[in-house]
Amino acid sequence: MVKVTHLTKKYGDYCAVDDISFELEDGCVYGFLGPNGAGKSTTMNMITGYLAPTRGSVLIDDISMMKSPEKAKKLIGYLPEIPPLYPDMTVLEYLKFAAELKGIDKIERMNKIHRIIETVKLEVVEERLIKNLSKGYKQRVGLAQALLADPKIIILDEPTVGLDPKQIVEVRDLIRRLGEDHTVILSTHILSEVRAVCDHVIIVSRGKIAADDSIDHLVEQYNEKQRLTIVVKGNSSNAEKVIGRIEGIEEKKMLEESTESCRIGITAEAGRDIREEIFVKCSENGLIVLELNVEEISFEDVYLKLTNEAYDLETPDDGREG
Ligand code: ADP
Ligand code: MG
């Protein structure tokens, strides 16, 4: 289990991670989601013991990352945003070196290395220099390094960035397989990726947690109410009056008005399709319905609402100097 409590990181006056707390259960795949600059990498670097927090604590299976970093780190395999590769080593040389660093028993070392090479499909490049590998293969070498010591928890920082579509599918499949018997935390700002592999998401925005939930439950919550928009011809005050009298409508809001028509947003109780009634009541009262739409709130909509930012917002460079 991973337990993060009041974790905070300040760069000067700038708070990159602002008092976040969460708990992760064993054996799930977690998506750590948020726009660029939200604080994902900073958080992951603190969870894995690569960066000291300004405040707060991290427990890995009840072992404190601050008090016993060596013991806690043994339980984690980490693929940082920029994997720590040595370009002048061959894949095999590098993995031997990494295995030694991780303190893997000499007798077991080659066995483990060969098993990992098979798992992440590096056989064809094992004798090649890392600097000559494609981005996809380099990423897999980084992944191999993270998996080498059989960690219980695997933390991957944007593992598919810069890969081509075929490589992305392969890495996703691998993550799914790893998720069967590991706890996996995966950061990304790609929503489809999260949907494809994660059981649960933690959405971060500007250093704070905006949601900590399963995707289905998150979307369900936002769809608890029925949301519709209606466009009617003519007089807006009459339209508002008529719609306001319909049973089951909880809220109405004028969205757009002109001399010819008006658009009204409606919130109604869920569970019963209210469209027919709206249509009948409008026509009984001489209102001509030009449009009537039901709005389903998607995971993308929820994400945008929670983060309040555009999908690919670049990392803000203000605050860097702090
Ligand atoms: P993410 O991984 O979600 O894109 P980061 O954790 O990398 O976000 O960064 C969070 C914020 O902290 C950003 O605004 C970034 O500019 C800032 N930041 C990250 N590292 C440093 C640093 N070493 N010094 C100053 N500011 C930093
Ligand atoms: Mg990052």
Walk me through what this model shows.
With 322 residues, the chain is α/β, with parallel strands linked by helices. It folds into two domains: 2-220 and 303-307, Rossmann fold; 225-295, 2-Layer Sandwich (Alpha-Beta Plaits). Helix content is 34%, strand content 30%. A six-stranded mixed beta sheet has the order 6-7-8-3-9-10, sandwiched between helices. Helix 3 (91-101) crosses helix 4. Bound molecules: adenosine-5'-diphosphate and magnesium ion. Residues 11, 16, 34, 36-42, 315-316, 319-320 line the site of adenosine-5'-diphosphate (ADP).
Topology:
Elements: E1 2-11, E2 14-24, E3 29-33, H1 40-47, E4 55-60, E5 63-64, H2 69-73, E6 76-79, H3 91-101, H4 106-119, H5 135-147, E7 153-157, H6 165-179, E8 183-188, H7 191-197, E9 200-205, E10 208-213, H8 215-222, E11 225-233, H9 236-244, E12 249-257, E13 261-269, H10 275-284, E14 289-295, H11 299-307
Parallel strand pairs: 3-8, 3-9, 6-7, 7-8
Antiparallel strand pairs: 1-2, 1-4, 4-5, 9-10, 11-13, 11-14, 12-13
